[in-house]
Amino acid sequence: MDPEAAARAQSVTAVDAAAEVLALARARTASPTVQFLEADLFEWQPPRRYDTVFFAFWLSHVPPTRLPDFWNTVATALAPGGKAVFIDDGPAAAAEERALANQPAPAALRRLDDGSQYRIVKVFHDVRTLTDDLTALGWSVRIWPMSCNFIGIAEPPTTPGPKRMSSSRSTDSRPMLSSRSTTEAQSGAAGSSANANRNGRLAVVHAYTSPWRWAAL
Fold first, then answer.
1. What CATH number is associated with residue 57?
2. What pTM did the predictor assign?
């Protein structure tokens, strides 16, 4: 959680599935305007509506079959005129990961600084395909490539609701993993920033955290 983002917004709701990550974020951002919530993003129901929903390096950890429901939750969380802002790894970042074949969802093997290895959901979204997928869900979206990453801004459909994506994806929606370990959260520097309007309402899905419990090999 970026203290600058907290200072610019009237209120911030920071959501993560891991208590360890939330503790790190609290230590970095001592602000009465920030509310920290421990919740599974696939079950969480937004208690209010926000001007901005921001998530960094989260989308690539969402199984493809769960994308429509996730984006519907984001749409429900946004106030009229609100936007979703997101940053994540593009296909070029795949060279830094060891992809795993024959998994129920796109996955990779990740090694932490302590030498332990974990199997994680990891989808390296192509900008054009992701744009097409979100457009098929009714979103108005602009995505810009940035080196190995991309940044996107999306406006929700007028009427949020379930739609089908046009692209062919993995069909298994079983959860593989959950929030990262404390070691990974520390090495990943759980920080985020967003250009939230001053006095606006900002919801943050913590940077560098994944939605599933990591499966140790």
1. 3.40.50.150
2. 0.74
